[in-house]
Structure formats: C-alpha cells, structure tokens
Amino acid sequence: MSDLLFKLLRDARQPNDPDLLMGYCHYLGLGTRRNYGHALRYFLKSAQRGSPWAEYAIGLMYDSGKGLDHNPVKALAWYVRAAQRGYLPALCALAEIQESKRGAPERPRIA
Q1: Consecutive sets of 10 residues in the chain, 111 residues long: mean pLDDT of each?
Q2: Residue 19's domain is classified under what CATH number?
C-alpha cells in the first residue's frame, strides 16, 4: 500500500489538474473520506481531457477492484490509453501484463 500511495502522490503533483488531484484525494482519503465512486468521477473528467495520469488511475481501479468490479480487460484498455501518451507507469503495467498474460484471451493451441 505504501508503494501505491507514494506513486499516486508523486504523479499527482506533476499536472496542473484539479480534477486529478481531487480524484487522488478521494481515492486515498486525504482530507476527505475515502470514496472510490467520487474518485472515479474525477478521474474520468480528467481522462476526458487527455490526462494519462487519470487514465492510469482508472486502470488501477479496474485492476485492483477498488471502486469497480475487477476487470483485467478494462484495466488493460486504460493502461494502453495512458501508455500511448508515454506515461511510464502505464508502460510498466503493460509489461507486467504481458509477462503474466493476465487480461489476454487464451490463444488456441494448434495441434
């Protein structure tokens, strides 16, 4: 948990995006009660404006099942969006997914 907290706080200070910052506050319960629903709303607003930080955070929510149903396929889609904008943590998440093959449909075996 402390690693995730560090990453989120480190990344939140980079953009000048109040919706993203509010999303992190609600996600982590900083200065307010933890509320994943509110966090998701703020992250979606920020993601609509093209924030790779928010796209990655939404991917984390799907990946962890916090505030959303655990869905590796949707997590993968959000990680890809953030990675396409060059966001390094999203690229790392994609590498981990590729390594573990989670979220990818099983390939049929050729006899």
Answers
A1: 58 71 91 94 96 96 95 95 94 89 59 52
A2: 1.25.40.10
